Amino acid sequence: MQSARRLLCLWCMLGFLAPMTVLAADDEEFDAVHHTADGYYLDFSPIGKIELPRIFIIRSEVTGYSLRTYWTTRSALRSGEMHASLHSEEVEEDTHAEAEPDTEALIASGDHLGATLVPNDGEVVLDLSMTRHLMFALLASGILLTIFLQLAGKYKRGIGRTSAPQGLFQNLFETLVIFVRDDIAIPNLGRDKYQRYLPYLLTAFFFILTCNLLGLVPYGATATSNLNITAVLAAFTFVLTQVNGSRDHWRHVFWPPGMPVLVKFLLIPTEIMGLFIKPIALAIRLFANLTAGHLVILSLIGMIFTFTQLFGEAVGYGVVPISLGFTLFVMCLEILIAFIQAYIFTILSALFIGMAIADHSHSEAH
Amino acid sequence: MLLAADLLSANVGLIVWWGLVFLALLLLLRRYAWGPITSALTEREETIASSLNRAEAALEESKRLQESNAQARRENELQAQRLLREAREEAQQLREREVLRTREEISALRNQAQEDIARDKEKALQALRSEVADLAILAAEKVLQENLDGSRQRVLVDRFIDDLSAQRHNQFPYEA
Fold it and tell me: Are A211 and A137 in contact (CB under 8 A)?
C-alpha cells in the first residue's frame, strides 16, 4: 500500500517536470546525437552557453606557421581572420554561392558553434581548441587531484598508516583503492610486479569513474563518451603493455611456439593485429557504453517531443510519465554502468599488461 | 548532421591535449597521492599482520607457561605428599622404637627389682636363720642348762638349720 503511494507521488513529480521539456520542444529541434557529441561550448541551456577558447596552429603562405588564440568562437569569427564553413553539404554550397557569409547572422542563429573555422589566409595544421569533453576531463582530473592529494595528506599525517582510517571520506576511497589493488592489479599482474602498474590502474579507474558520474550530473558531459579521450586512455594501456612486454610476449607474437611452420605464418599477422585490436576494443567499449547510455536517455526524453508532434499535445503529456519513468530507470542503470565500465577498462588493462609481462616457465603448456 | 561525423570524428587537438593532461595527472597522482597512500596501506597491513603474529606467539608462550606451571605444581604436590608420607613413616618408626625401648627398660627394671627382692629375701632369711639359731641355742641352753659347752652346741644347731633350710629349699624355691 505504502509503496503504491510512493509510486504515485513519484509519478506526480515527474508530471510536474514534464511541461518544461514540452515547452522547450516548441522552438528548438531536439537532437540526441548533438547533445551527446563534443562541442566548443559548455551547454547551460536554457540559461545560456559558454563558448570555450579556440586555439589554432595555422600555416599560411605569407607568414608561415603561427599560433592563433581567441577566447571564443564568436571572437574568432569577428576578428576577420577566420570564416565559418558549415558541416553539411548544402550549407557549404550556400556559402559558396553567397561568397561572403553573414558572420553576425550566423552568430545570432547560434549555428557558428557547429561550424568549422577556416582561416582566411592559409590552413589549420592543428586545432587545439578547448572542447566540452576536454573541460569535463580537466574537471575530473581536478576532482581526482583534490580528493587524492587530500587523502594522501591524511595518510602522511599517520591516520590510516599507524591507526585505523577515519571518517567516511577516507574509508570510502580506501575501500576503492584496495579494491583496485587486491581485485584488479594483484590477480592479473602478480604480487611481485603489480606495484609498477598500480598507479596507472588507479588513475585510469578513478578518472573513468569520475567522468562517467559527471555525465549524470545536470549540465554535465561525459568525457568518456568521446572516442578521442578513450583512445588516449587505451593508448596508455597499449604503450605500457608493449614497453614492458617480456621476451615470451614477443616470442609468442613473432614466432608462436609449438606450431607447425605454416601455421606460424598464419598466426603471426593475427598476433600482430591482436596487439592493436585489444586497446582499440578497450577504447570503443568504453566510448560505446557511455554514449549508448546517454543516447537511450535522450531518446526516451525525445519520445515526448515525437509524440507531441505526431499526435498533439495531449498525447505528449500522457507520454511524459512513461518516458520519465523509463529515463529514471536508465539513469539508475547508468550509475551502475559508470562503475562497471571503470572496472572493466581497468581490469582488462591489467589483464593485457599481465599477459605481456608474464614469464612463462618452459614446462608450461602453450 | 551525420551521426558518424559527430560522434566518431577524430579530434587531433583533443587527443594532444588529453594525452598531455592525462600524463601529467598520472605522474602527479603517482608521485603525490598513490605513492603515500599505497605505502601507508602496505605499512598498516604489515603492522597488523606482525601484530597478529606476535599475539599468536604470545598466546602460544602463555599456554606453554601455563602448561609448565601446572606441571611444576603437580610435581610440587607429589613431592609434598611424598615428604608427608616419609615424615609419617619416620614418626611411626620412631614411636615404635620408643615403645620397644620403654618396654625393654621396664622389663630390665623389673628384673632388677626381682633380683633385689630375691637378694633381700636371702639376706632376711640369713638373718632370720641366725636369729632362729640363736633363739634355738638359747632355748636349748635353757633346756639343757650347762650340759654342753657353747661351741659344741653351736655346731649342732647350725647343722640342723642347714638341713632344715635345704629341706625348705627343695620344698619352696624362691622364684615363684
Answer: yes
List per-block mean pLDDT (blocks of 10 residues) for chain A, which spans 366 residues.
Answer: 65 51 50 75 79 84 81 81 63 46 72 76 82 91 93 87 83 92 91 90 94 89 89 93 84 79 83 91 92 87 86 86 91 93 94 85 48
Cα torsion angle, A65, A67, A73, A79, sign:
negative
Count of Cβ atoms closer than 10 Å to residue B110 Cβ: 10
Q: What is the CA radius of gyration of chain A?
A: 26
Are A237 and A282 in contact, with CB atoms under 8 Å apart? yes
| H, E, C per residue of A247-276 | HHHHHHHHCCCCCCHHHHHHHHHHHHHHHH
Supply the DSSP symbol for A360.
-
The dihedral sign for the CA sequence B118, B123, B129, B132: negative
Q: Tell me how far apart the alpha carbons of residues A211 and A154 are, in angstroms, rounded to a whole number.
A: 25
Query: Which cell is B82 given?
Result: 611424598
One-letter amino acid of A314:
A
Q: Which residue in the block uniquely carries the three cell numbers 508532434?
A: A309
Report the residue of chain A nearest B16, measured CA to CA: A128
Helix (H) or strand (E) segment spanning residue A69: strand A64-70
Classify residue A52 by its DSSP letter: P
Reported ipTM: 0.82
- Residues from B contacting A (CB-CB < 8 Å) are 1-3, 5-8, 10-19, 21-22, 25-26, 28-30, 32-38, 40-41, 43-44, 47
B-chain residues within 8 Å CB-CB of A90? none
DSSP state of A44: E
Residue recorded with cell 614497453? A243
Phi, then psi, of A48 in degrees rounded to 5: 165, -175
